[in-house]
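Figure 6 in text form: structure in, sequence out.
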């Protein structure tokens, strides 16, 4: 199985959180799995590292290079916009200031037929709404 890894998972990994390391390890143990991110996850992650922490930044770049990077194609942006508008019309809103980014990550995973791995409980709402969105 292949997985799209959300930014919050990557940040927890860089923070050396044991639970997250175990979670990712279990995903790739079968040897047939691959972990994916997009350039937006890369950007979101690296921007959180303070400028003066150059060693941490380099280490993060090295770890992020281990993930396969996907392109966010124009079709994905269009689907993310349509799905976001659909969710809002149904009263489904996500917490936080990065709602548009969450829709992009969700739709990237769907576009590439990947399972989205995230610690964001709001994304469960999207999964439920997605099936009805497909029938519109």
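Output sequence:
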């Amino acid at each position: 199985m292949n997985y799209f890894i959300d930014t919050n998972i990557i940040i927890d990994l860089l923070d050396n959180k044991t639970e997250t390391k175990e979670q990712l390890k279990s995903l790739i143990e079968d040897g047939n799995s691959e972990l994916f991110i997009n350039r937006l996850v890369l950007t979101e992650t690296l921007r959180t590292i303070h400028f003066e922490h150059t060693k941490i930044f380099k280490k993060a770049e090295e770890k992020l290079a281990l993930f396969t990077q996907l392109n966010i194609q124009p079709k994905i942006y269009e689907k993310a916009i349509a799905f976001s508008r659909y969710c809002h019309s149904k009263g489904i809103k996500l917490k936080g200031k990065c709602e548009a980014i969450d829709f992009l990550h969700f739709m990237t995973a769907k576009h590439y037929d990947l399972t989205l791995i995230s610690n964001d409980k709001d994304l469960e709402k999207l999964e439920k709404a997605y099936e009805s969105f497909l029938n519109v």
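Caption detail: The chain is about 60% helix and 10% strand.
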